[in-house]
Design goal:
The protein is of the alpha+beta class. The chain has three helices and three strands. The chain has one domain: K homology (KH) domain (GMP Synthetase, Chain A, domain 3, 2-Layer Sandwich), CATH 3.30.300.20. Belongs to the KhpA RNA-binding protein family.
């Protein structure tokens, strides 16, 4: 999951070297924290959050085999 989010984010931004993804696990959830350069925040979020929603949809579809809920958070 972490690699998938990192791959998608690097394809979207102007500064792919600044992309960082941290994975935090609970007993029920996996949280992926996505960090990008401040100038690239708009590119990852998109107009009205459409790109962020699309990233979350792809991750949820890919996490069907996981027995945990996967959440993607975009952090400054």
């Amino acid at each position: 999951m972490k690699d998938l989010v990192e791959f998608i984010a690097k394809a979207l931004v102007d500064q792919p070297d600044e992309v960082r993804v941290e994975q935090l696990e609970d007993s029920r959830t996996i949280t992926l924290e996505l960090r990008v350069a401040p100038d690239d925040m708009g590119k990852v979020i998109g107009k009205q959050g459409r790109i962020a929603k699309a990233i979350r949809t792809v991750v949820n579809a890919a996490s069907v085999n996981e027995k945990k809920r996967v959440m993607v958070e975009i952090v400054q």
